[in-house]
Amino acid sequence: MTAAWKAAGMTYNRYLAIAARTVRRSLKEEKRLNAERRGEMDLRFAKWQNGKQGEVKNLATANAAAMAESAA
Asked: Which of 15, 66, 68, 72 is least surrounded by CB atoms within 10 angstroms?
């Protein structure tokens, strides 16, 4: 038997993110706010060239800029 998330064409990580968001939204106000803060992520990356680290960028900001650039 195939798992429901796999049959729906999702990855396991995506399934877990949706499940976690659903649980957070079902909590009472005070606990919900605390849980949402814990669920936030701030991912950063840097390109390396010739053994030197480039500028460190926020992944969400860089992704949004790349999407806007490709749409134009």
From this structure: 72
Is this prediction's pTM over 0.85?
no
The reply to whether 48 and 27 lie within a common domain is no
Cα angle 40, 62, 70; round to 5: 130
Tokens of 19: 């499940």
The reported pLDDT for the residue numbered 52 is 94
Q: Is the dihedral of CA 8, 67, 61, 58 positive or negative?
A: positive
Q: Are both 48 and 34 inside the same structural domain?
A: no
pLDDT of residue 17: 85
Residues 27, 1, single domain; the answer is yes
